[in-house]
Amino acid sequence: MYVETDFLTALVNDDDWLRDAAIRALEEREDVHTSILAYAEVLVLFYDRETAECEIDAPRAITNLLELVPIVPKEHEDAVLAAAAFLDEYDLTPFDALHAGLVTTGEERVLSTEQDYDTVGLDRTPLVPESSK
Predict the structure, then answer these.
(1) Rounded alpha-carbon distances, angstroms, from residue 69 to 4, 62, 88
(2) Strands of 24-130, DSSP E
(3) Each residue of 35-78: pLDDT tens digit?
(4) How distant is the alpha carbon of residue 81 from its chain centre?
(5) What is the DSSP letter of 131?
(6) pTM for the whole thing?
C-alpha cells in the first residue's frame, strides 16, 4: 500500500495526531511503501529556512523511516539517504540535496549553475562559464 507524506510525518513526530493510526497501519500491513516524492516533502519539513539548517537529525530520522516505509524503486533509497546527509553536513537545501543524492548514486555529471554541488564532490559542468557571472 502506497503512503504519502502525512503518514511519514506521523511516524517522525511523537505528538502527531495521526501517529497511532500510522503505527497501527504498519502493524496490520506488510506492503507499506512510498516514493522519493514523499521523502522529498519530509526533507522540506525538516528544513528550517530561517536558520538554513535542519532542525532534527535528518540522516538518523530518514534511516529510521526507511526501515519502516521503504521507497519504490529501491535505488531511490540511496539517493534519499545521501540527500539527508548533504542537508545535514553541507547545508544544502532539500531539493539541491536530493538532486545531489540522485547524481551521486549513479555515474552522471550535473549541468548546473549551483556551486553547492562542488562542495559535495559532484562532477559539475557549469551551465554558463563561471567567468560570465
Answers:
(1) 10, 10, 21
(2) 47-48, 53-54, 110-112, 124-126
(3) 999 999 999 988 765 554 445 678 888 999 999 999 999 989 99
(4) 7
(5) G
(6) 0.86
